[in-house]
Design a protein that fits this description.
By secondary structure, the chain is α+β, with helices and mostly antiparallel strands. Helix content is 53%, strand content 14%. It has eight helices and four strands; from the N terminus they run αααααββααββα. The chain has a four-stranded antiparallel β-sheet. A hairpin with a 2-residue loop joins β3 and β4. α5 runs parallel beside α7 and α6 runs antiparallel to α7. The radius of gyration is 19 Å and the shape is elongated.
Amino acid sequence: MKKVCIAFLCFCMCLTVMVGCGKPQRNAADSIKAIYDLYILRDTDGISSLGMTEEEIADAQAAYDDSLKETIRTNFSESGQSIEEDVLNDLCDARKKALSKMTATAEITSESDGRATVLLHTTYFDEATLDEDSFYNAREIAQQTSFDDLSQQQIFLMDTYTQNLIASYEGVTPSKDTVAITVDCVIQDNNWVPANMSSFGSDLAIAISGSMQD
């Protein structure tokens, strides 16, 4: 059975081209921190200062949320189960609440000829263990409960697992230490952006989920 945690390692980030004129007004570290704040903290102040409109910000967040929900639905479907829309929304909201507790700092380690390297330090929580504990606890309860048939047991198991996971996200305490990822940046339309947005998203997903500690 593929558990929900797998979905969250697919960190798809979409940024509308940020149009500016002249030299970038913010440095590369500020830009990377602004993108982190947008997707991890749901804080839009930094990204607004880079030139994204409220509509563009809303579209970027909605695109990420929709992609995440579709991945979760697919994982449940491949396990022979479905997830109700309100439960899916509660799960995603709980994870957003967990991520909003994170903190990060960014620093430029090198800059030359329109390229820069930024080191992003972020706190994290062990998402894989949180997911596994939620599932194993649900399985224990399901094994100790009587059901008329296996399908009822599976439905109970997934419902209990999902509720456990929601509760676990809501109770998350981020790490006291941080992990770091290196981000290569370039100037695009007079703003600093990751040279490879997909790679940055993947590295960030691994970092915030605690997978870099394995």
